[in-house]
Design a protein that fits this description.
The complex is a heterodimer of chains A (426) and B (77).
Chain A lengths: L1 E8 L2 E4 L4 E3 L2 E4 L1 H9 L4 E9 L5 E10 L2 E5 L18 E7 L1 E6 L8 E4 L2 H6 L6 E9 L5 H21 L8 E6 L3 H7 L5 E9 L5 E5 L2 E2 L6 E3 L1 H5 L3 E5 L9 H5 L2 H9 L5 E10 L3 H17 L4 E5 L6 H14 L3 E8 L20 E6 L3 E4 L4 E4 L21 E4 L19
Parallel strand pairs in A: 1-8, 2-4, 6-23, 9-11, 13-18, 13-19, 19-20, 20-21
Antiparallel strand pairs in A: 1-12, 3-4, 5-11, 6-9, 6-10, 7-8, 14-15, 14-17, 16-18, 22-24
Chain B lengths: L1 H6 L5 E4 L2 H7 L3 E4 L14 H20 L6 E2 L3
Parallel strand pairs in B: 1-2, 2-3
Classes of the chains: A alpha/beta (426), B alpha/beta (77).
């Protein structure tokens, strides 16, 4: 399967009378987007705002971040199962509005959404401070249940990203990036001497608004399965997560998975990137056993020499991670795990809830309990009062002067376990 | 907590869903429970069935507490 990404660089978003992409500016007709979103009767109101890199702006509570993309050629449409019919994606060409994103906010769960600061210390911890963000503030009609609100916000984000993506359908991109995965047999013939490496992508699926969807399917209801890496670039996997902000995979992460990106960069050079195994993180022990059994079985079946395993979230998913690691290693397949740590504010506590001797190669996204100080911002988009309740915050986190003292956990994407973050010991 | 209470000489039964974590942290008597969001209940059951389930689980925990163990033991059904 072969996919070309047409990169259209966006360096600014402006509200305008006509929605269009001109040069590197994305113009947005506010009323058109609003009308589109308010088609959903779940919403009482929808406000649009723009947050640009370097501006003194704080966005909270952030639910999802989505990159606008559009299919130019090839089967299906972006976000299959949601914004397009269910049809296998990942081939042909897709245009990407690189540098732009849709950010959704709403007080859905409140304590399980995050913060994006566009400047200052906080901006250094989130990759989304570098994007031109079209922010949607979505309020539900009174009496809307949380799960209905979550779904509506999720769809509003996808809808808006799809609307923006379509503006770039006919643009000839200056930069084209090509990604190709051959069939298993072709891969063996092409690279007989290269180590066969797979990627085990763990998806948050604990339920109760901790959900990820694959082609519209709730991941907790699926067995571990396989996906072409390019399918993820067309939005085959989307986030429905209201969970600790620092290590949840937003839809933006799934579209731009750095593990996939890096494995492709080395594909055919010093390794053979065989494919992606997607597995879940459910709340029943039997599910955890079954799903990790299947991960290991698929690694064996594919004849992998090595596998990279990335986790999403923390706590009991640490067990899914360790089960995957242990069982895959037991099949004779070397593993590297990517996780993050909850080692206490002083960094002295045990980092993961579970451990095993097989997990002897580990990459960390950082200690989510690290205490950070965020300066006051001139403008807040969303609802700032949730900072005292947000995971990683505490009563008093929001200071009288508008600054924040809290754990790194509060920042969207700060300790991302795909490695899509900026935290480094270097 | 399990280990600290046992260190004080009081035997402990750890009722939990993720048995592997309980094994990793070093609990000696482990009773597996239903699911992480509802360890001692099951919203899919009727009130009566759920009552039975809870009674059974607590009964199993009390039995585990009375049972001498040589090392880490999981008390399955």
């Amino acid at each position: 399967m072969k996919l070309e990404l047409g990169i259209i660089k966006i360096s600014d978003i402006q509200f305008a009378a006509e929605s269009k992409v001109e040069g590197s500016t994305l113009y947005v007709n506010k009323d058109e987007v609003k009308a589109l979103i308010l088609e959903d009767e779940t919403f009482a109101s929808c406000e649009l705002d723009i947050a640009r890199p370097g501006e003194s702006v704080r966005i909270a509570p952030v639910k999802d971040v989505i990159e606008p993309r559009v299919k130019v050629s090839g089967e299906g449409g972006v976000f299959p199962g949601w914004m397009a019919k269910v049809k296998t994606v990942g081939s042909g060409r897709t245009n990407v509005l690189k540098g732009a994103a849709v950010v959704t906010t709403g007080k859905i769960v409140g304590f399980q959404e995050g913060i994006i600061d566009m400047c200052g210390e906080g901006a250094q911890y989130t990759p989304f401070s570098q994007l031109n963000n079209l922010v949607l503030c979505l309020e539900p009609v009174e009496g809307t249940l949380q799960h209905a609100y979550e779904k509506a916000v999720r769809l509003a984000g996808l809808k808006t990203a799809t609307y923006l993506g379509k503006l770039a359908k006919d643009i000839e991109a200056e930069e084209i990036r090509t990604y190709e995965t051959p069939s298993i047999t072709e891969g063996i013939k092409l690279y007989p001497d290269l180590p066969r490496v797979g990627y085990v992508l763990m998806l948050q699926s604990q339920g109760l608004l901790h959900d990820t969807y694959v082609y519209g399917v709730d991941a907790k209801q699926s067995l571990t399965t396989m996906i072409y890496p390019t399918e993820t670039m067309d939005g085959a996997i989307i986030s429905g997560n209201c969970v600790s902000a620092c290590d949840k995979n937003t839809t933006y992460h799934h579209l731009n998975n750095p593990v996939i990106e890096d494995l492709y960069a080395r594909h055919g050079k010093d390794l053979n990137f065989v494919g992606v195994i997607i597995t879940n993180e459910n709340v029943y022990l039997a599910d955890k056993e079954r799903s990790s059994d299947w991960s290991a079985k698929l690694c064996e079946y594919l004849g992998l020499d090595g596998a990279i395993i990335s986790q999403e979230g923390f706590g009991n998913p640490d067990t899914d991670l360790i089960m995957n690691c242990k069982k895959i290693e037991a099949k004779g397949v070397k593993t590297v795990i990517i996780t993050d740590e909850y080692a206490g504010q002083d960094g002295a506590s045990q980092s993961l809830a579970d451990a095993d001797i097989a997990a002897n190669a580990c990459v960390t996204g950082g200690n989510a309990n690290t205490v950070i100080h965020l300066p006051k911002m001139d403008k807040v988009i969303g609802h700032i009062e949730y900072v005292d309740k947000i995971a990683g915050g505490w009563s008093g986190s929001l200071q009288e002067d508008g600054s924040i003292i809290a754990e790194l956990q509060v920042i969207t994407g700060a300790t991302n376990e795909m490695g899509f973050n900026k935290f480094s010991a270097r | 907590m399990v280990k600290e209470i046992e260190r004080a000489g009081i035997p402990v039964v750890h009722m939990c869903t993720v048995v592997p974590i309980s094994l990793t942290v070093g609990a000696n008597r482990i009773v597996p429970t239903v699911a992480i969001p509802h360890p001692l209940g099951n919203p899919a059951l009727s009130k009566e069935e759920e009552h039975d389930l809870r009674k059974k689980l607590v009964g199993r925990a009390l039995k585990a507490l009375e049972t001498p163990v040589d090392g880490q033991t999981v008390f399955e059904e």
